[in-house]
Write a structure and sequence with these properties.
alpha+beta; Alpha-Beta Plaits; two-stranded antiparallel ribbon
Length: 176
């Protein structure tokens, strides 16, 4: 199943945190199938406490043959290994944040997981990197593709600044 995963970091070496997390996520795929990777972007904090440091954000897509809940568990393990505490307040500074943005055509609404990510279409820091790799993707429950959602976004987030090229040398061309 194709999964979109959002990555963010605002503590320590943010780019290195993204690189280490993305490499760890790729290891979940047994056959190391090709993956898509957006550029990394400098982004302003959204819904965070005052004086929160800026983030680096990016999006990756890869095919992994595990369930969404199993992937969520693996992502939490990666976050822990990279220094994110398991017990934390929402929207606090973090070495790494890994969110499942979508899982193929699945729609999940449970206490543990909501897919597609419930605030994906309201966040420039998610939409812009995702538009870089999957501009024509239409998520389940949506009627517009990612590039249209980005173009019509009503947000006070400032434009994003690209800080690094895509991480994966085997990144594929964007597809529908």
């Amino acid at each position: 199943m194709k999964y979109g995963i959002g990555l963010g970091s605002n503590i320590g070496n943010r780019l290195q945190n993204l690189q280490r997390a993305a490499a760890s996520v790729r290891k979940i795929s047994i056959d190391h199938s090709p993956a898509l990777s957006s550029s990394a972007y400098l982004t302003e904090p959204v819904d965070c406490e005052e004086n929160t440091s800026s983030f680096y954000n990016m999006t990756i897509e890869l095919e992994i043959e595990i369930s969404p809940l199993d992937l969520l568990s693996r992502l939490r393990e990666i976050e822990g290994k990279l220094g994110r505490p398991t017990q934390r307040q929402r929207n606090t500074p973090r070495t790494i944040d890994l969110d499942i943005l979508y899982a193929g055509d699945l729609v999940i609404n449970s206490d543990e997981l909501t897919i597609p990510h419930p605030r994906l279409s309201q966040r420039r820091f998610v939409l812009q990197p995702l538009a870089e790799i999957r501009p024509n993707l239409i998520l389940p429950g949506h009627h517009q593709d990612i590039i249209t959602l980005l173009a019509e976004l009503d947000s006070e987030e400032p434009p994003l600044e690209q800080v690094a090229a895509p991480l994966f040398a085997d990144s594929l061309s964007p597809s529908c």
